Each structure stands twice: as structure tokens, then as C-alpha cells.
Amino acid sequence: MDWQNKLPAGAKYPQHTLRTLSGEALTLGAPRGDADWQLVVIYRGRHCPLCTRYLNELEGFLPRLHALGIDVVAASGDSQSQLEEHMSRLQVSFPLAYGLSVAQMRELGVYISIPRSEQETDHEFAEPGLFVVNEHGTVQVVDISNNPFVRPQLEALVSGLEWIRNPDNHYPIRGTFEGN
């Protein structure tokens, strides 16, 4: 029953270039500035209050993530106007991109949902996905959920990334065993 591919740990992250509200081209999976890793958050969209809260909470972890050399970006399948409206409830300084297509969602292996009503949203949307892409463009950490209630706890995630990024720990990509 292989109806949906999941992007496995250790795989090359499929880079997608989307737009931000400023018109900037943002490439998911390509760290910006001095960062050599990137944390990519795929969120459901403006209709999801849990996404709004999660993104706002993530903002508080930026100093620690940046100290680790980890860039932070987020994207959804929302339209430009939906993201513009959503910004009134977001207090984030990291870039948000819009227009993630269903084909791109499938390539990332996130779960995709159909809106329950027109009041929810007007398009299929990605359920939460979180990817940490290392300096080789490889998926170091992946978390994919089929609903908005299950996401990595941010303190645990950032503490774990601090452990992984510490060169004394020699921590490999986990979950890559393919044997019998």
C-alpha cells in the first residue's frame, strides 16, 4: 500500500523555489547567509490556528538556531493574498513562502488534505512537515504528521540540534537502516 512516498532521512532534499510577500525567491533546502543548514517548516496555512501558534513559538528559538548555523524558513500552499492576511496574526522574522503546489507537497512526502469546507480554505493543503537539511543538502531530521496536533516540541528539537551540531558528538543521520 505505497500510496504516498515519504522523503527518507539521508535523502537529498528536493529544492523548491517559492516567493515571499516581498517578491524574494526563496529556495527551500538552500541555507541563506552564513548558515550551512536549514530548518524548513511546511505548515497547513492561514486557516490553522495551531500553525500560527507554532510559527510564532518558533520565532523565540531563532537565536539558538542561528548560533548553530541553521537558517529557518516556512512555506505553505496558501496564495499570496492568504499569506498577506495571515501575517496579521504572525510575529515572525524568518521568511514565509506561499504557493507550495500539490506536486511539490508530494515530492516532499507530506500528507495532503482536502478542505472540509470553503470556510476552512479553498485548496488542498499540506499537513505539517519539518525538515532539517544539512550542509550536503541531505535530510538530517524529518518529521511528518497527518494532522495539526502532532509536531516536534520546539525545545526538544532545538536541544537535539544542539547535540547533533556539536562536532564532539559525531552524531549520524538516524533511521537510515534498509536491511531485512
TrEMBL record:
Question: Thioredoxin domain spans which residues?
Answer: 7-166
Give the protein name, as stated in the record.
Redoxin family protein
Query: Which PROSITE patterns does this entry report, sorted A to Z?
Result: THIOREDOXIN_2
Regions that span the bilayer: none
Source organism superkingdom: Bacteria
